[in-house]
Q: What sequence folds into this?
């Protein structure tokens, strides 16, 4: 049991990234970016197409890889999630540049469409919530929704990273956990050894007393056995003698 407990302290539990809102939104942003490029960016004439898709993919995939690596290494998890954030910022910049270069409009606070967009992006996380609109929204709408999703993902990831940072400060990385686990195991073994060494003299004394008691009972048994045999043979001899006397009288 001690070994299992220590092993659990070395390897952290696997995070279910599909249940995390920032991962769900990162899946949305990747599919949105792909649909956006497919509709509005020329396949061969604009290199931005590949950059947008790769930035969106890098964000999502680095979240997955970072959370998977977190089982063993908090340090690697922090690095990869920060790479995901960097890709997300690059993606947001591309969407903002698209709006500026095409002289489109940013949705701004105070506008009904801004409030609707903000509420929708805040409370909807799954791809199925957005996918029906990919073929309907204008490029302006898709850019604004993408930018807003990028902001939400970034804020959620920052909160998650701060939590990981605190865990790293208090628990350390894989080397510290391995050291604590190994040290804890050795301490348990040392304590058990000391306990056994302390109990051994008492057990020896108990064994000696038991052996002495057994010897006493053995001696009493032998004495009882001899007395019983003596009585038995005495009675047997008396029976034999009486039979002989009776035979002579007849």
A:
């Amino acid at each position: 049991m001690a070994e299992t407990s220590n092993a659990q302290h070395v390897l952290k539990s696997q995070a279910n990234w599909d249940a995390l809102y920032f991962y769900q939104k990162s899946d949305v942003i990747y599919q949105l970016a792909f649909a956006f490029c497919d509709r509005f960016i020329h396949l061969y004439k604009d290199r931005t197409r590949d950059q947008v898709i790769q930035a969106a993919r890098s964000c999502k995939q680095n979240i997955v890889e970072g959370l998977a690596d977190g089982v063993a290494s908090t340090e690697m998890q922090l690095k990869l999630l920060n790479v995901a954030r960097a890709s997300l910022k690059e993606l947001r910049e591309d969407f903002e540049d698209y709006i500026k270069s095409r002289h489109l409009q940013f949705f701004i606070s105070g506008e009904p469409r801004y409030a609707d967009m903000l509420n929708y992006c805040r409370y909807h996380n799954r791809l199925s919530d957005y996918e029906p609109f990919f073929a309907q929204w204008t490029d302006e709408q898709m850019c604004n929704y993408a930018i807003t999703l990028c902001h939400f993902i970034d804020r959620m990831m920052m909160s998650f990273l701060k939590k990981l940072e605190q865990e790293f400060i208090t628990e350390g990385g894989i080397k510290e956990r391995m050291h604590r686990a190994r040290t804890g195991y050795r301490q348990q073994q040392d304590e058990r050894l000391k306990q056994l060494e302390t109990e051994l003299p008492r057990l020896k004394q108990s064994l000696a007393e038991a052996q002495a008691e057994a010897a006493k009972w053995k001696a009493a048994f032998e004495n009882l056995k001899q007395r019983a045999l003596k009585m038995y043979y005495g009675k047997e001899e008396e029976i034999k003698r009486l039979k002989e006397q009776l035979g002579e009288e007849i």
